[in-house]
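Researcher: Here's a chain I'd like modeled. Treat it as a single chain, no partners, no ligands.
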Amino acid sequence: MIRISNENGLLQRISIGPHTLHSDVSVELGGAGSAPEPHDLFDAALGACKALTLTLYAKQRGLPLEGLDVQLSRDDSQERQGIYRLDVELTLHGALDDAQRQQLLRIADKCPIHKLMTSSEVQVSTQLREEVQ
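Model: Modeled as a single isolated chain. Structure tokens:
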């Protein structure tokens, strides 16, 4: 379960099991800019999933992937029209040949979050819960 609670101003504490993250908005939007915005966390989920997927895949197949860097850039200029664009650049480290690099590129788009973002209908149900006194 994920729990989110207001910590101070617009700063939110995100509790995921034993882990704690924070989210805020920019100063221009009234926040303190002290933590990633929700869109940043959404984008980061994709990058982290691709990195984990490639690392696990390479390990299972004995590929010489020594590490990788993922860089994401966002174009949300048409978000209100239903278009949210993420460009992902992968830097693969290790003695990989061209065929292995292309194989990893194909696998990157098969990570679970990529699939969720591009081929699933996400349904969200929101309801009120009684305040605990």
